[in-house]
Amino acid sequence: MRREAITETGGGADAPAPADRRSILVWDPLVRLVHWGVAGAVLLNATVIEEESSAHELIGYIAVGLVATRLVWGVIGTHHARFSAFPPNPVAALRHISGLIRGRRKVHLSHNPAGALMVYNLWATLIGMGVTGYMMGARAYFGMEWVEELHEGLFVWLMMSVGLHLAGVVVDSLVTRVNLVRGMVDGRKSVAAGEEAE
User: Fold this and answer.
1) Which domains are seen in the chain, by residue range?
2) Comparing 81 with 102, which gets the higher pLDDT?
3) 77: Cβ–Cβ under 8 A, 6 or more apart, which residues?
4) Between 23 and 195, where is the model more confident?
């Protein structure tokens, strides 16, 4: 049964106090390892490692390997890690964003609809970067300008997506009062008593 979230309130004087909150284990160790491993790989390749170096290539492949692991885990993993817990739904994502703008609280144990779309976008972009990175070193595509331009374009898109992702995490955390960053560190989400629903 899908444990998704949950309650919509206005966040006014009747909002529950911190003492009324409870901690729920959501993200398993593999999900957190992949998340921070990919984040670290992207940060290293974007800021520290030389683009033409073998280290850049190795770190890129590690990132793609982590994404591939997460995709397998999305099929066989724990409840909240499975794709069925956060299916891609653009309409639901727009509805969620609209609700956040209006200050409406709707807590999701797994990824919220907007976060789900962002996760799929980030995974697809990283895989695309891995494929084009491989092509740049392959004899069949060596020297082809469009491959390098596509790789660079995907990097720009990745950086834009990461920026939107971080902004979304901040906004959602403020509106729902669920610390999403902490949840990806210790695996737990703190929600108000009575908010969770099957």
Assistant:
1) 31-189 (1.20.950.20)
2) 81
3) 28, 30, 31
4) 23
